[in-house]
Amino acid sequence: MIRINLLPWREARRKALNLQFYILIGMVAGLAASIVLLVHGYYATRIATQTERNRFLADENAKLEKEIEEIKKLKEEIQALLSRKQVIETLQADRAQTVYLLDQLVRQTPDGVSLKSIKQAGLKVNLTGYAQSNARVSTLMRNLETSPYLETPELVEIRAATVNNKRLSEFTMNVRIKRQQPVADAAKGGAGKAGAGGASKVGTAAPAQGGAKK
User: Fold this and answer.
1) What domain range is 105 assigned to?
2) One domain for residues 126 and 200
C-alpha cells in the first residue's frame, strides 16, 4: 500500500492563500487610502476655492459699503444744495414783494378810501385806514380778493371815527401776499423793469390819492 504525505503541500497552499490574502488586503488598503486622498484633495480644493470666493465677496462688500457711504454723502450734499437753491429761489421770488404790494394797494384801493398804515410780517399784511362808508371797505376787500398778488382779505375791525370834522369809517384788515413762483432770468429782468415802473407809479400816485381822499 502506497502512502502519500500531503501535509507539506497543504502547508504551502495555506501560505500561498495567506500571502494572497495579505496582498489583497494591502491592495484594498492602498486603494482606500488613494480614494481618501483623492476625496480629501478634492474637498480641500473646493474649500480653498470657496475660501477665495468668500474673501473676494468680503472685499467687494467692503468696497460696496464704501461706495454706499460716498453715495449717502453725495445725497446729503445734493439735498443741502437743493435746500440752498430753494432758499435762493424763495428770496428771489420774495424780492419784489414790497413793490408788488404797494403797486397793488394803489391799484386796488377804490375812491373814498385812504390807507393810514401798512404793516407786513412775512406774507401777512395788516392795513388800517379810513373810508367814507362801509360799502367802500367792502369794495376794497373785493378788489384785494381779485388781485393777482394778494389774497384772503379779512376784516378785523371797523368803527366810526371823526377826521377833520368828517364822519368816516376807520377799519383794520389783514391780507396775505401770494407767493410767486420763480421764473426764468429773462422774465426776472422784465419783472424788475415792471417793478421799477410800479415803484415810480406808487411814488407819484399814492400821495395824490391820499391828499384827494383826505
Assistant:
1) 96-213
2) yes
Cell of 129: 385806514
Mean pLDDT of the chain: 79
Report which residue type is found at 98.
Answer: T
Question: What's the rounded Cα separation, in Å, for the pair 60 and 102?
Answer: 64
Radius of gyration of the chain (CA): 50
The HSE-up count of residue 158 (CA atoms within 13 Å, CB side) is 18
State how far the Cα of 11 lies from the Cα of 31, in Å rounded to an integer: 30
Give the total number of structural domains in the chain: 2
Q: Are residues 80 and 47 in the same domain?
A: yes
In three-state secondary structure terms, 179 is: coil
Q: Out of 2-11, 59-68, 200-209, pick the least confident.
A: 200-209
Query: pLDDT tens, 72-94?
Result: 999 999 999 999 888 887 777 66
CB–CB of 140/158 below 8 Å?
A: no
The domain boundary residue, chosen from 50, 71, 94 = 94
Flag whether pLDDT at 200 surpasses 70. Answer: no
CA of 211: how far to CAs of 101, 107, 205, in Å? 20, 16, 10
Q: Give 187 or 125, the one with higher predicted confidence.
A: 125
pTM for the model? 0.44
